[in-house]
Design a protein that fits this description.
Length: 279
């Protein structure tokens, strides 16, 4: 158990309620990024994944870098001032609101998650600029209408105006049995024209055997997981207009110097990323 995680796990929550008795995908992701908000059980599971695919920290960094470029692009180049980030995970600076508000200080961001461990750290997401605002709401990614109601109830965003919807490193934790395509459609159908969907998703296209083993690690430890092909990920954007360069391996989406892992292969990244407009 890390000292940081131990010090922030109060509030009357039990070890079981915070999931400290089994690996957690958000804390494993934190470990891949070199963070401290993880426990022995997370590190042990993460090391099993790393043994199967040593580049998994590259995947995590590529995802993080894509989120940064996406938020900056939407705020600075497309004029988006409202964001919904679903599946927020454990805060890691800079967070989405910090990137968006650096480009446009009046940006408003609603973070959505339903995980007790994320709620413990949610205060770190509420330090926005005086001109803008950030809020965290509890809602289940598997219940999109619940998400929309929770966001609307905050009255922070005007859903009759364009929104940037972020589903980063989320949908590979929603197997087909959860109807993730229907989930995405429900969310995007509720958004105003001029809104954008930003999405990343792990893939086994470049190394099927390793990713099959990774999925097995997660599933065997209680986290439903399904990686998808490019064609399958592309279907999440049905009815939307992909922004150039389309759906690509994440480090190839409008790369910038110092914006993420460089000199890496598509196989090392194994993560698709794209942004699309709702016309």
């Amino acid at each position: 158990m890390s000292g940081d995680a131990q010090g922030r796990s109060g509030g009357g929550a039990t070890e079981g309620e915070l999931g400290q008795d089994k690996p957690h995908s958000a804390r494993m992701y934190d470990y891949y990024l070199g963070g401290k908000t993880n426990y022995i059980v997370d590190r042990e599971a993460a090391e099993l994944v790393i043994a199967q695919f040593p580049s998994i920290p590259v995947v995590a960094r590529a995802n993080r870098a894509f989120m940064h470029r996406s938020a900056h692009f939407l705020a600075a180049e497309r004029g988006i001032r409202q964001f919904i980030d679903i599946g927020t995970g454990i805060p890691t600076t800079p967070n989405l609101h910090e990137v968006a508000q650096e480009a446009a200080p009046d940006s408003r961001v609603v973070y959505v998650d339903n995980d007790p461990i994320v709620m413990v750290y949610a205060d770190e997401l509420l330090d926005g600029t005086p001109e803008g605002a950030t809020l965290y709401v509890e809602a289940d990614a598997k219940r999109p209408r619940e998400i929309l109601e929770a966001v609307a109830d905050t009255r922070l965003l005007d859903l009759s105006r364009p929104v940037g919807l972020s589903l980063h490193a989320l949908l590979h934790f929603l197997p087909d049995s959860y109807d993730p395509n229907g989930l995405v459609r429900t969310l995007t159908d509720a958004l105003a024209p001029g809104s954008y969907l930003s999405l990343t998703h792990c893939t086994g296209d470049f190394d099927p055997e390793s990713w099959e083993a990774i999925v097995d690690v997660y599933v065997s430890r209680g986290t439903p997981t399904q990686v998808r092909s490019r064609e399958e990920v592309l279907r999440f954007f049905d009815g939307l207009d992909l922004v150039d360069p389309g759906l690509v391996v994440a480090h190839r989406w409008r790369p910038e110097p110092g914006s993420g892992p460089s000199l890496v292969t598509d196989a090392q990244v194994s993560l698709y990323g794209g942004i699309a407009l709702k016309a």
